[in-house]
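User: These chains co-purify. Model them together.
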Amino acid sequence: MTEPVSNAQAVTLTVNGCTRTVVTERSTPLLYVLRNDFELNGPKYGCGLGQCGACTVLMNGGATRSCVVPVAAAIGRETTTLEGLGDIHAPHPIQRAFIDEQAAQCGYCLNGMIMSTKALLDRNPDPDDDAIKDALRFNLCRCGTHLEILAAVRRAAKYVRDEMRACTR
Amino acid sequence: MNDMSDLRVCEIATLAACVIVDIDDDIATLAARMSLDAGVSWIAAGSMGAFVADEAQHAFDAARRLAAALAQPDAEASAIVTSRERLPHEKRYTWPLFDDALHACDVLARDDGTSIELRCATSDAQQLCAQLAHASGLPATRFAIRATSNIEDESFVATLAAVMLLHRTGRAVHVRGVMSARETKDVRMSLGASLDEAGHLNAWRYDADTGRSMHETSSEHTPNPYAVRDETLHTDDGFETIPHTAHAFARESFIDEIADARAIDPLQYRLAHLDPIDDAGARELIDTLADRASWTTKAKRAGNAKNLQGRGFAFDKRDDAYSAWIVDLDVNRATGDVAIQRVVAGSAKGRRSIGAIAGMSSARIAAAASKLIGVRLDAHAAHDETPRAQPLAHRIETTALQDTPATREAPSIDTSPAAAAIANALYDATGVRFRAPPFTPERVRDALNGASAPGNALPRRMRRTLRGAMAATGLGGLVALACTAWPLRAPIASIAKPDASTWSQATIARGRDVAAAGDCAVCHTAPGGAVNAGGLGLETPFGTVYTTNITPDEKTGIGNWSFAAFDRAMRQGISRDGHHLYPAFPYTSFAKISDADMTALYAYLMSQPAVESTPPQTRLPFPLNQRGLVAGWNALYLKQGEYVPDATRSALWNRGKYLVDGAGHCGACHSPRNAIGAEKGGRLYLTGGSAEGWMAPSLVANSKLPVRWTEQALFDYLRTGFSHEHGVAAGPMAPVVSHLATLPAEDVRAMAHYVASLSPVAVETRAPSQPDALRLHALDNGRRTFDAACAVCHAQTGGVGNFGVRPLLSLNTSVSDASPDNLLHVILHGIDAPATDELGYMPGFKDSFDDRQVAELAAYIRAEFAPREPAWSGLAQATARIRAAGH
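Assistant: Joint model of the two components:
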């Protein structure tokens, strides 16, 4: 057998508006690079197979399961993580809604719930309950906080609409 | 649209007219006399006259005869030219002006009793009305003008003539042509040159006149693009009636004659007189066209008992614009018919460097060549041209279509080399020099008869061609047969690595496309290795065949391969050193690549970075390691000869078939192979095969598919790696698509068009039936696995959508395939190298699920999404097999 060859190379990414170059193999999952190199721990390692949604980030605005996408896919695309929405001092309306509804128990899935909600509300600012359930169908929560999360998304939609109204006024 | 059809209806009841202006009494008398012979009417008024007939063709014929009569040479004027000092090389050429002087037009005049209705192209009807009123003396209110186009104006003379003729004949008149009698004379051109010892042009003298001496010298219209020591240009052209085309004809014929006398390649001779720096643009154009036409790499066609064959080149330059033509033609020995086979022509701008080489529309090529040989021709872009791009190479055919008397097109730099290129090709074929167009069958036949009449020796060229023809048919055939049967082939001498600057950028770019269509790099690149440095192991039923290094490295690659060696390897599967290559290298397909594309591919590969790398040796077990045996295989399965287009199919179809069967070598995977690895043809052509452990689906109508592949679906799939109705490209197809994505879209369209044509009958779409509930119950495990692992991306609805495409399994080809292999491959190994950037990735589940779980999942997918297909059997074993085979 041949020796394993390291194909590490410089990879330049734009994450939350900042551009940085890291040295990594192109096939490394994006999640590892975000957590280890960019030190962004919002996206979580859940199943590692793209099933649970805890690792969700946005790439060019679209939901992306970062554990099954190699870092090479993010080259030339804008990546947004939970940290890119808002922080503790100025939370994003969706984050505010999740806090206000206390929609977490262990909280491990919430990164995915919030990022998927962002993708949903960008597409449909006024979803009904069926649309919310359908959109979050493939984000898994094991603590059973589904009803709180549902309420949080309803509230988030309202906050986002209010904010947009305030902006356009 | 309406106006045009009206016009045609009117044509039947109207008279057609060809108008001659600038006539004097002598010409009027001559014309009146000639009109009697031609059976047309001659109507004259002042300095204007017209041949009038029921059919436009008759009027044109009469005008042509008049022009020929007017063009009789003028002895006195010729004397001026001959009185000059003689040079070692002197030749004279003649250019008839008639065809350039005759301008086609389309003006209809009729009187409906109240007003004179005029239909013509005009941008200002009111002004035209006023002018007509002024010139004819009729009140402006009499005219009703209907503009057929407001983009370009018909000549005022034509409209006035139409009114005059309407008045004189009392019938509706359709004026179809206007000619000035002043412009009908022949142009005489006399060229002289002396050479230095090396054969380079020393002195250069050029005289041209129309025999209507104004003694006004102008040299600005006769630029000589070639470097000479001493130049005398004299053009007596007071009326500025000599077209540029005439000058180009004389100069390019003359250069060809000198090169022939010195036995130098005429194209190289021209290049030797073009400045390497100041004429870099022109040189690049000539190089590109020479490559495109395989000018140097292909031996002259031998001709046969019926036809003589020849090729000719001509070049023209005006300011910083250039153009060049290469013509291949056949001359029928008996009838003198000239059949142009192919034209490679292009133009470019820019003195030192040129941005892009522009091709020409086939219609323009056909129009220019038709006029010169007096036979209506039809041209199509050659099958190795990308559809809709401006083609350089054209296939020419004689057509039965009726000629239109004259074209509207003004002579331009693009077509000015046409006459000399044809004359030079005629000389190459027949050994007879034609120093005046047109090259009609009668003139060519007369010239052939004259040259081979008793007492006259055959022209030198013809003798050579005859010998060549004999060799090709007799001895050559035997040699070819012997070579095919002989297992060992002679090595071809190595050469020093050719410099990349040997080829123009355009040729190298073309070669890149051929390489992309042929996916050279897919097989000739090892995982993680340098591009084209070889070393990928191809699993074949006979053992692993390692690909070779095809970078231009002189030691380990093909850097010391001449084009002849490369061409032989590509078409016959014989390496430069004479050993046979295994047919894992699809030379049976590559044999169909056109010469020009082969040249371009060689140019591209030779211009890439050389990588020193020795790939592993291919070691097949005995007796397969006896490479000489491949000779026998070749005798059975290798069909020589490049692709011959099917004239009954469209250009798009032919282009597609050329790409699919040639460079694209689709059949290598998608046709079944027989026991000794040859592709099965006939009914089994492209009906599905296998590659690297994957099933290559059938490309012809497959009743198993839930939705038939359409041209659009094939295009989407080949272009992007994803068709909504069929799924994503994976496995060995992914790198193929990634290369196709770099081809011009029209080429991919052509391939899709051709492949779609293989399944012409629409397969009825079946409504998916509900799977049997009981059967599905037994598949509960598989369903749960699907919902947990797959549904996030592959469910019909739900979720916020993830990066990449969402292939629906109910439409997926792999799910309805007879074999589960492709589906199992993807489940176990995922897709980590998608064909294109936007497709997204799929994780492999080989480390998450055991064989039983994968088998349950596959069984469920089959039952749920391909309910009409029988369940797969032996899924667990198949899973184990594919897991063991690895990626």
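The first strand of chain A starts at residue 9 and ends at 15.
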